[in-house]
Amino acid sequence: SAGVVSYNILRSTHIDGPYTLIDSVNWPANEFVDTDGAPNSYYKIQEVGAGNSILTTSQPIAGEELLLKSSLRYELLDLLNC
């Protein structure tokens, strides 16, 4: 998105929070691995603009959903490289 300088990664053990900031990723990077996460974790991603202003915040994303997407991406990349 226009004006994005970084992304905040937030995690919670409950879908309705509270969410804790676990890391920030500078734009244009768009990958993050939560080594302390679990399939029962929930995440939100915040787009951060200049001056640390929060531009948008995603809806909650289930850890198991992210795990499935990551696994599929890994398998597809492996298949495409054969």
Would you mind describing this structure in some detail?
- The mean pLDDT is 82.
- The protein is 22% helix and 33% strand.
- The radius of gyration is 14 Å and the shape is flat.
- By secondary structure, the protein is of the alpha+beta class.
Strand percentage, roughly?
25-35%
C-alpha termini separation: 34 Å
Fraction of residues in helices?
10-25%
Radius of gyration: 14 Å
- Categorize the overall geometry: flat
Mean pLDDT: 82
Give a topology summary.
Blueprint: E1 6-12, E2 20-26, E3 42-48, E4 54-57, E5 61-62, H1 63-80
Antiparallel strand pairs: 1-2, 1-3, 3-4, 3-5
In short:
This protein is an alpha+beta fold and 82 residues long. Helices cover 22% and strands 33% of the residues. Strands 1, 2, 3, 4 and 5 form a five-stranded antiparallel sheet that branches.
Keywords:
33% strand, 82 residues, alpha+beta, flat
